[in-house]
Design goal:
Distance between the termini of chain A: 29 Å
Order of helices and strands of chain B: EEEEEEHEEHEEEHHHHHHEH
Largest sheet of chain A: 3 strands, antiparallel
Number of helices of chain A: 3
Largest interface: A-B, 34 and 38 residues
Strand order of the largest sheet of chain A: 1-2-3
Strand content of chain B: 25-35%
Number of strands of chain A: 3
Helix content of chain B: 10-25%
Radius of gyration of chain A: 14 Å
Distance between the termini of chain B: 22 Å
Strand content of chain A: 15-25%
Helix content of chain A: 25-40%
Shape of chain B: globular
Largest sheet of chain B: 7 strands, antiparallel
Oligomer: heterodimer
Structural class of chain A: alpha+beta
Number of helices of chain B: 9
Radius of gyration of chain B: 22 Å
Shape of chain A: globular
Structural class of chain B: alpha+beta
Chain lengths: 108, 455
């Protein structure tokens, strides 16, 4: 599987420039990709709202721009609070130690 | 199959595994280019009751670079949708399927096509029907006519087809992956101290199996820039970053942006040239990133192996390898296109950016079938591989011969290829493919039916 997360790509590299194209990739797949997965519960709301999303060029969006359906959260590193959040064909990355700790506690 | 199961990760994901890419000026419609990307390798025609289908969860794309930077300028995106008419039967079909809207056909696929030019995407086809798989004389009694109904005219001179086809690529996989054995020459193989072998005819390991093809025919003018007739072509498949098994509903759910998991331009590059430890990464990158793999093209491991596998047969190649000179001939064929002035009257050079793309000079007219050489450019036929790739081109022999040094004189006229280099073959020809190729779109043959194969 690819690991070409735009977030990890330095400025000016081919991958970063092409992330503009991935916007179209998201547009072409909206609707067909309205699947989602695990919901993390209400606690995610305030934490996510408090974070700032990366610049648009670092993301892929579905054209609806909504987050209907559940959201998938991947805690990459609980210690640093490095979290990826997926919904529809979008992803964003946040750093929230408190949220990571609460998720870690929730799963025991 | 020039790229089937070529990398560890994608070998576990056949629905997203690209097997071959073809690009050629349409012989029966010379103002257009036909692009074909095959997926889902080695389909046993009898593989029911859940017959093969495209992945609803996969984004399939065919890309065209027309300015030589190794990035897509025009892309065609394909998304599939499966519907089940009656979930209360285990049957794929409940009677003969004689039309694409037959009520007897229980599990069917449709697809949407989006054309992306620059940063503008435009839906050019929606809800297009795929044909069913070829099951047998009771279920799909006139398969050729049925599949012909799934050739769709999209407007703007674009024609599209997506569905099962007979595998058209011929290769003796069983021998080649048995330590580089070429059956017609196996009496010369080193055999690693084991008893000597006798020369034998090639065996087409990909005979009587099917693939799923995405074929699109597009006016040349929609793919090229004025005054620049050469294009680079490749296909990719992408999956969303997250997949979870929803145990409550018994299905996978996907989320997140799409990321590339499969790539294919020139045949056999990832399969034969890229080392095992880099194949998965290669699949995830774009052609514009291929400079990092340059050394595997300019110093190919297989060229170094041939003199060892066939002792005494390739002394000149052995000397070339020992000299450590980079194979600029292979770099031109596979990564930049062949510059003007190398082969009289021919070029498919797209620029200095090293990028694995199937390069096609669209200004080269199709060669009449009676005059075609399956060895393409090596056979003096400029309309064949590596100027694009036709469905009948013998890319195995062409690449073997090139690796063995046949094309090195293009950049060093003092080099004399070994006599055996120009004769290398796995012993197969288009006649080794049982299902006849078509003389018209989508050119690959009617798929083998499960009733008849295996026989």
């Amino acid at each position: 599987m690819s690991n070409q997360d735009a977030k990890h790509v330095p400025e000016g590299t081919p991958e970063r420039r092409l992330s503009r194209r991935s916007l179209l990739q998201g547009a072409a797949t909206a609707g067909a990709a309205g699947l989602a997965a695990t919901a993390i519960g209400a606690s995610a709301g305030p934490a996510l709202a408090a974070t700032s999303r990366p610049p648009a060029a670092d993301q892929s969006h579905d054209t609806a721009g909504t987050h209907a359906g559940p959201i998938v959260v991947h805690v990459r590193d609980a210690r640093s609070g490095d979290i990826e959040v997926f919904s529809g064909t979008s992803q964003t990355r946040v750093r929230d130690k408190d949220l990571a700790a609460r998720i870690s506690r929730a799963i025991g | 199959m020039s790229s089937h199961r070529e990398a560890p990760e994608i070998s576990k994901d056949p629905v997203a595994d690209s097997t071959d890419v073809y690009a050629f000026v349409s012989p029966d419609k010379p103002g257009s280019v036909t692009l074909i990307a095959n997926y889902i390798p080695l389909q046993s025609p009898a593989g029911g009751p859940n017959f093969y289908e495209f992945g609803d969860d996969v984004l399939y794309e065919i890309h065209v670079d027309n300015n030589g930077d190794g990035r897509a300028d025009v892309s065609f995106q394909f998304r599939f949708r499966t519907t089940v008419r009656n979930p209360e039967t285990f049957l794929y079909n409940t009677g003969p399927i004689q039309s694409l809207n037959s009520p007897n056909w229980n599990r069917r696929q449709t697809y949407d096509v989006t054309m992306v030019s620059g940063f503008t995407g435009r839906a050019i086809g929606t809800g297009l029907a795929c044909p069913p798989c070829n099951i047998g004389p009771l279920s799909t009694p006139d398969y050729g006519a049925l599949a012909a109904q799934a050739v769709h005219q999209l407007g703007g001179g674009i024609t599209v087809f997506a569905g099962q086809r007979a595998e058209g690529f011929y290769v003796d996989l069983g021998a080649i992956f048995d330590l580089g054995d070429l059956r017609p020459f196996e009496q010369l193989h080193a055999t690693f101290g084991l008893p000597a072998l006798k020369a034998a005819p090639g065996v087409n390991a990909t005979n009587n199996v099917n693939v799923h093809s995405i074929a699109i025919q597009v006016p040349v003018s929609a793919l090229t820039r004025s005054g620049h007739p050469s294009i680079g072509v490749w296909t990719t498949a992408s999956r969303q970053r997250v997949r979870l098994w929803d145990a409550d509903n018994g299905e996978n759910v996907d989320s997140g942006p799409f990321r590339q998991v499969s790539r294919l331009g020139n045949p056999l590059v990832n399969e034969v040239l890229i080392p095992l430890g880099h194949k998965d990464q290669w699949n995830s990158l774009q052609p514009s990133d291929d400079k990092r793999f340059e050394r595997y093209v300019t110093h190919p491991g297989l060229a170094a192996l041939l003199p060892s596998l066939y002792p005494g047969v390739f002394p000149n190649l052995a000397a070339l390898v020992a000299a450590g000179k980079p194979r600029a001939d292979l770099e031109a064929i596979l990564l930049t296109g062949i510059p003007a002035g190398i082969i009289p009257g021919f070029t498919n050079f797209t620029g200095p950016v090293l990028a694995d793309m199937l390069r096609l000079n669209t200004s080269v007219p199709p060669t009449p079938s009676a005059k075609q050489s399956i060895f393409g450019l090596l056979g003096g036929d400029a309309a064949g591989f590596p100027n694009g790739r036709r469905v009948t081109d013998d890319v195995v022999a062409i690449e073997l011969r090139a690796l063995a040094g046949v094309t090195y004189p293009l950049i060093d006229k003092t080099f004399k290829p070994d006599a055996a280099a120009g004769k290398l073959t796995d012993g197969l020809t288009p006649a080794s493919v049982h299902a006849p190729y078509l003389g018209h779109f989508p050119y690959l043959g009617v798929p083998y039916s499960g009733y008849n194969e295996p026989s």
